[in-house]
Structure formats: structure tokens, C-alpha cells
């Protein structure tokens, strides 16, 4: 796919893309052909898209190296977005032009991501917008919501009445995990980042919340946690290792792949990383929870599409919940 001049035409769209891989690269504004939906696909005129750390990994070429595939440039990042159906491919059922939808664009290369005015969603990876969500809230739900649900439901097998510690509770995965935990009727301790993170965690239903930046936070974890407590670690490093050390015998601990948690040197804990997978059954369960339980992603920072470099900077610094770009 080749970039055209920046003057748009009826058949082109604006997109933010990378000319090559590398952490030092900044995305530029391109005018690209609007993609045409194939069988089973929806063309969506995007209103908002999520921005996450995985976009940085894609920019840097980590996904391309792992998959062993050459990247087609310009590379348009963005795994998730929300907007209005503009056109339908053959064999699409259950959607109509004009529907408000949100979705996930997996396995992008050479497919374009959501940091653009239009994107293609496979019908199995698109869902009607829950009426409680704004476009930007729906846009940031798929990735972190799925990671949180997989962690609680499958990796930890959380059941009503269990005690749960969420480390990184004010971040993208953590703040959704707190809401899922509330609906599962879990007893929760949120280890958040900063006073603003503690306030957000309590507002989202945490039974208790503490600031993980403060010295000695692990003593509060030890006081909270009975034998057999569950822990979902959505951030890693030395602080995560101290939390693990504070967990009582019989605890079950899980963290998603990509989070740097040192292997616990204890035989009285169950501790392991997990993969999310984003399979249709998981994503449908997340959509059902969002619709039924009123999950509300917290978007703390919003940028225009052409401000994507600032959005990338934001995801590496302190922020609550999620970062989004507004594409229309």
C-alpha cells in the first residue's frame, strides 16, 4: 500500500503511520486508500482508537520479529477502535450500515490498524456499542478488558467470596479487573499508583486501596490477605517482587505475558504468567459483561489523531486507566 499526497480524495483517508521500525521513529500523517471490506468484514469509520504499550512494541518491530513476517510500510498501529459501520463485505450477518460498533484488529500486518479514519473489522471481532459507553470508552475496552477477564476467570479461577489483590489497579488492565471483581463478588485490595490512582480504585469498587509507590505497602497486603488469596499483577519490577513475597502460603498469583515479574523462589505459591489469546469466546464474554454489568473504561487522556506522538509519550508516563486518540 502506497501513501499518496496529503490532499484527501473521496477514496482516501488520513492515517498516522511509521515509515520504518524503531523506538526513535515518530509517526507521520499519510493519505492512504480507504480499505475495501472483504467477505465477513466491516468497514468502520472510526471515531476513537485506543493507544497502549503494545503499539510501542509494534512500532519497534517486536511483533514482526516474533511472527517472522516482513512489515508493509507505512505501518499503521492501533489494535482497537470504535465508530460507525460504513460498508459491509459479503456474508456479514447481524450488522448494518450506520451501526455504532467497537472492535479489535488482530494480526494487522499487512492490515491497517485503528490509528486512522477507517479500519476493517472481521465480524467475529466487532460488537454493537453498549449504550452506556462513549466512543472513546468502547475503543479502549477490547485489549485490556480481555486481559483482565482472562486473568480473573481462567488464570486465577476467581470465585465469589475469594480475596483478590490487584497490583497496578489504576492502570488499563487493573481498573477493569476491579470492576470485573466487583461483579464476581470478590473481596478486593487495590494497589494503585499515586493518590489519584487510589481515589480511582475506590470509586470503581475496591474494598481497600493503597498507594504502591509508598514504602512498606506490602505490609498492608500481608494484613489484607488470608491464606489462599488471589493476586493479579498488571505491572512488574521490584515492587511486584515485594508484593509476591508478602503473599501468604497457598496464594495463587497470575500476570499477563509481557509483564516483568521475577519468578517467585517459594514452593508454597502457585504463580505463572498467562496468555490472553483474544479468541471469539473470550471476546464475546467480555462484550456480554460490558453490556450486562456496565463496565466503564476510564479514559484519562485524549488526543487528536495527528497528536499520536503525544499519546505514545503518555502511555509510558503516569496516567490513570487508558489513553485514546479521537479520529473524527
Low-confidence stretches: none
Give the CATH superfamily of the largest domain.
Medium-chain alcohol dehydrogenases, catalytic domain
**Strand segment tally:** 15
Write down the CATH topology of the largest domain: Quinone Oxidoreductase, Chain A, domain 1
Radius of gyration from CA coordinates: 20 Å
Helical percentage = 25-40%
Secondary structure category: alpha/beta
What does the model show?
The protein is built from 10 helices and 15 strands. Strand 9, helix 6 and strand 10 form a beta-alpha-beta unit. It is an alpha/beta fold. It has 2 domains: 160 residues, Medium-chain alcohol dehydrogenases, catalytic domain (Quinone Oxidoreductase, Chain A, domain 1, Alpha-Beta Complex); 132 residues, 3-Layer(aba) Sandwich (Rossmann fold), CATH 3.40.50. It is 29% helix and 26% strand.
SSE layout and pairings?
Layout: E1 12-17, E2 28-33, E3 41-51, H1 53-60, H2 62-67, E4 80-88, E5 100-104, E6 118-122, E7 126-128, H3 135-139, H4 142-155, E8 163-167, H5 172-183, E9 187-192, H6 194-203, E10 208-211, H7 217-224, E11 230-233, H8 238-246, E12 252-256, E13 270-274, H9 280-293, E14 299-304, H10 308-315, E15 322-326
Parallel strand pairs: 8-9, 8-11, 9-10, 11-12, 12-13, 14-15
Antiparallel strand pairs: 1-2, 3-4, 3-6, 3-15, 4-5, 5-7
Amino acid at each position: 500500500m502506497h501513501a499518496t499526497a496529503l490532499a484527501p480524495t473521496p477514496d482516501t483517508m488520513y492515517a498516522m503511520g511509521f515509515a520504518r521500525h524503531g523506538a526513535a521513529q515518530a509517526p507521520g500523517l499519510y493519505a492512504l486508500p480507504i480499505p475495501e471490506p472483504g467477505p465477513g468484514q466491516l468497514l468502520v469509520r472510526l471515531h476513537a482508537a485506543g493507544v497502549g504499550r503494545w503499539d510501542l512494541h509494534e512500532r519497534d518491530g517486536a511483533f514482526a520479529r516474533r511472527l517472522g513476517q516482513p512489515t508493509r510500510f507505512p505501518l499503521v498501529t492501533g489494535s482497537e477502535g470504535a465508530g460507525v459501520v460504513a460498508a459491509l463485505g459479503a456474508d456479514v450477518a447481524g450488522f448494518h450500515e450506520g451501526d455504532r460498533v467497537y472492535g479489535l484488529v488482530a494480526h494487522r500486518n499487512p492490515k491497517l490498524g485503528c490509528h486512522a479514519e477507517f479500519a476493517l473489522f472481521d465480524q467475529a471481532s466487532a460488537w454493537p456499542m453498549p449504550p452506556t459507553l462513549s466512543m472513546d470508552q468502547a475503543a479502549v475496552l477490547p485489549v485490556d478488558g480481555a486481559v483482565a477477564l482472562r486473568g480473573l476467570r481462567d488464570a486465577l479461577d476467581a470465585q465469589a467470596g475469594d480475596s483478590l489483590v490487584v497490583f497496578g489497579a489504576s492502570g488499563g488492565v487493573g481498573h477493569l479487573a476491579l470492576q470485573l471483581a466487583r461483579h464476581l463478588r470478590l473481596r478486593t485490595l487495590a494497589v494503585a499508583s499515586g493518590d489519584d490512582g487510589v481515589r480511582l480504585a475506590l470509586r470503581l469498587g475496591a474494598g481497600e486501596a493503597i498507594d504502591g509507590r509508598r514504602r512498606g505497602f506490602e505490609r498492608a497486603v500481608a494484613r489484607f490477605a488470608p491464606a489462599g488469596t488471589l493476586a493479579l499483577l498488571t505491572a512488574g519490577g521490584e515492587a511486584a517482587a515485594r508484593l509476591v513475597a508478602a503473599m501468604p502460603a497457598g496464594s495463587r498469583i497470575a500476570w499477563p505475558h509481557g509483564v516483568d515479574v521475577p519468578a517467585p523462589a517459594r514452593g508454597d505459591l502457585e504463580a505463572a504468567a498467562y496468555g490472553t489469546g483474544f479468541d471469539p469466546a473470550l471476546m464475546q464474554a467480555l462484550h456480554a459483561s460490558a453490556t450486562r454489568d456496565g463496565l466503564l473504561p476510564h479514559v484519562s487522556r485524549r488526543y487528536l489523531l495527528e497528536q499520536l506522538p503525544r499519546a505514545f509519550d503518555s502511555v509510558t508516563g503516569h496516567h490513570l486507566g487508558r489513553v485514546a486518540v479521537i479520529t473524527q
